[in-house]
Amino acid sequence: EKIHTLFPELKIQMTETGSVDPYSYMSYNAIQTNRMFRFGASSLIRWCLVLDEYNGPSDSRNPHLKTSPVEYSNGVITYNASQNEVIYNPDAYFLAHYSRYINRGAYYISSTDIDSSKRLSSASFLNPDNTVVTVLSNDNADPATFKCVFNGKVIEYRLSGKSIATLKWQE
Length: 171
Description:
Layout: H1 2-6, E1 12-17, H2 22-38, E2 41-46, E3 50-52, E4 77-80, E5 85-88, H3 90-99, E6 107-109, E7 120-126, E8 131-138, E9 144-150, E10 153-159, E11 163-170
Parallel strand pairs: 1-2, 3-4
Antiparallel strand pairs: 4-5, 6-7, 7-8, 8-11, 9-10
């Protein structure tokens, strides 16, 4: 936030972001991503994009090279070479809330960080075709109702606990 305030003309690129365990933290990851955009980020690059079933590639000189398949990979996609199988991990679905609906040339528009103490968040974007996209996240166990207001239009949406939702409408 401070960098964006001091240098608003600079583009902030969030690179090499990742999650420790997206199976448990997808809604939390969305809250963090919403805040990155709110504080001036213009892009997000997830690390690592594709890993194999051993969480590689890895440098064979690395003494910590994994030699057995793991149950969880924190790559967005896992390619299991032995079975010629592509697996879309939770981060792929988490990122789709942003990448499928926020178009190239869109920009962040003001939205309220609903209540960080209650682990609720939103981020809104205006696409070049004048559609508005709002990504909502509820990191609580209980459902929460969100109220989106833009240019006199009101949308209320009840979001289940530990969930993410994307709303899109014409401005």
